[in-house]
């Protein structure tokens, strides 16, 4: 897609994957917060160019932040819908877990003798922060690749919301503060000047079970080749969905297109 020019970093614009938009704003001098702010600004402008959607604020949380939050909550309940093999964690016969790294074309690196990759088998269970995050990062062993990973990431977000709601975190200032501290610098939330505690407190009446998550392209691949490279393009229906978001008609769209609802 077309990523517009971003003069703040000297980027002149290009046509490529949308996930490059953040990096073109992030590059250059400044503090980590300033660079992230530019990255979000560039991404927001890119989405606006494509859809017309304007953003009033944004939140950024990295993997470390997610893991810290789930650890503070004491874990989450997850249901594995498809056998998934990790490329980030290994486990030995004693149950000790090792953090690993993956090299494209060569597989898992630094796996200790006698250890094997962690495998998430089908079924519902309580997951630690480490295992829940790992499950949400896997895509290579899934039948639907990136779409499966997106589905599991949405599942994790919903599981965190359920856990927070069930333990009264949103309505308990002390517990809420502990979760915010757990995320630490890994979590950046733009609330337009409203204290984060007040912002989250307004969500106290929103039950996690009421969250409805949706997926682009109804979870189906729409691969196109451009200049010798393969890209996933938004379908016409997905553009209609984003137009519904812009115009405040998303509920109407989802009712007419239930295939866009993510089953988490």
From TrEMBL:
Signal peptide: none annotated. This is Cell envelope-related transcriptional attenuator domain-containing protein. Belongs to the LytR/CpsA/Psr (LCP) family. It comes from Phytohabitans suffuscus. PANTHER family: POLYISOPRENYL-TEICHOIC ACID--PEPTIDOGLYCAN TEICHOIC ACID TRANSFERASE TAGU (PTHR33392). It comes from the Bacteria. It holds the Pfam family LytR_cpsA_psr. Coiled coil: none annotated. Residues 13-165 form the Cell envelope-related transcriptional attenuator domain.
């Amino acid at each position: 897609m077309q990523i517009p020019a971003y003069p703040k970093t000297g980027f002149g614009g290009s046509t490529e994957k949308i996930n490059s938009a953040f990096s073109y704003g992030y590059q250059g001098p400044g503090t980590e917060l300033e660079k992230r702010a530019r990255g979000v600004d560039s991404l927001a402008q890119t989405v606006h160019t494509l859809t017309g959607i304007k953003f009033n604020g944004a939140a950024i949380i990295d993997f470390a932040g997610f893991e810290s939050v789930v650890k503070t909550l004491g874990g989450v309940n997850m249901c594995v819908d498809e056998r998934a093999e990790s490329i980030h964690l290994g486990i030995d016969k004693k149950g000790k877990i090792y953090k690993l790294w993956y090299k494209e074309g060569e597989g898992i690196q630094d796996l200790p003798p006698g250890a094997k990759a962690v495998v998430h088998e089908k079924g519902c269970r309580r997951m630690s922060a480490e295992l829940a995050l790992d499950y949400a990062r896997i895509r290579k062993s899934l039948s639907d690749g990136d779409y499966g990973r997106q589905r599991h990431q949405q599942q994790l977000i919903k599981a965190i919301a359920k856990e927070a709601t069930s333990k009264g975190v949103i309505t308990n200032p002390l517990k809420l503060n502990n979760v915010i501290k757990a995320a630490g610098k890994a979590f950046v939330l733009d609330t337009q000047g409203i204290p984060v505690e007040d912002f989250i407190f307004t969500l106290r009446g929103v039950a996690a079970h009421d969250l409805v998550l949706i997926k682009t392209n109804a979870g189906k691949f729409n691969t196109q080749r451009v200049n010798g490279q393969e890209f996933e393009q938004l379908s016409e229906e997905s553009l209609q969905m984003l137009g519904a978001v812009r115009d405040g008609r998303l509920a109407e769209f989802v009712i007419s297109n239930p295939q866009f609802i993510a089953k988490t």
